[in-house]
Amino acid sequence: METTFPSQEDIESLAGYQFPGGAYRIAHWENFLLTGCTGADLLPGGMAHPSALFHLPIAGAGTSIAEMFALGQAESDLSIMIESYDWTFFQPLWEETDYQVAGRITSAERCSNAEGKLYDRIQFQFDVSLPAGEPVARSVITWHYTRDTL
Amino acid sequence: MKHRVGDPIPEWVMEHVSSERMRTMAAILRDPNPLHWDRQAVAALKLGLGERTINQGPLGLGYMINMLHAWAGPGCIRSMVTRFPQVVLDGERVIARGTITALRETGSELLADCDISLEHAQRGVLLEGEATVSLTAPATGSPV
User: Fold this and answer.
1) Which residues of chain A are within 8 Å of residue B46 when distances are taken between CB atoms?
2) How wide is the angle at C-alpha A56 spanned by C-alphas A51 and A59, nearest 5°?
């Protein structure tokens, strides 16, 4: 079966793409379940588990994992590999607190691995702030969209 | 407590990575990837992983966060970068480990730069990265 790749130009044109942006509030139930999934007890005073810095910015920016897969024309959900998650906390995250999120694609490039197989490296940056603009956290997600490897 | 470069961070152990927790996490994350909830999808890959689901990145990363919290307190993490050289599979016992690589003061805060990892007894390092942690009193109250 012949597999078609997106063109290199299509991939590179993703750099600079802006997500709609928006707001997100971590509900208590959500933090309760998420914290339990990590094997930890709830943090004190309504502090949210820092692992929320994965999904909070994605949802708050007005996008989804599925849309991020689709933007890079993923061959399938199974074809995405994580390069890195780079997280910065200017202050802790809290339950039931309104956050503003801005998100964009900061780079998109075609690469090849040591075996010469092509993949597309796409980097997303999400900035989380309080409604008044005070910075809270930044999440940089770098994924590899593998091609013809499944 | 006096900290020194080279000091190990006390280990944090996840005794049993759970496929049920992956399912819950998939719903919270709105993550459509069947690798996290469909053993047959994983078995169909040519990776030799068998019928075991693959842990979400933020979950494995969360074990290292739990180690840092147990050591320096909730709210201690200033930054962390995590890379994923190997997957974490359901049923595995994994250990979060870390070492202080540098200590520095910024204003009133003492910061520790650390190498961190998530390891499996047979498969070695599954996740690895670096974290910067505050060793001063952690935050305890809500911002609002």
Assistant:
1) 150
2) 140
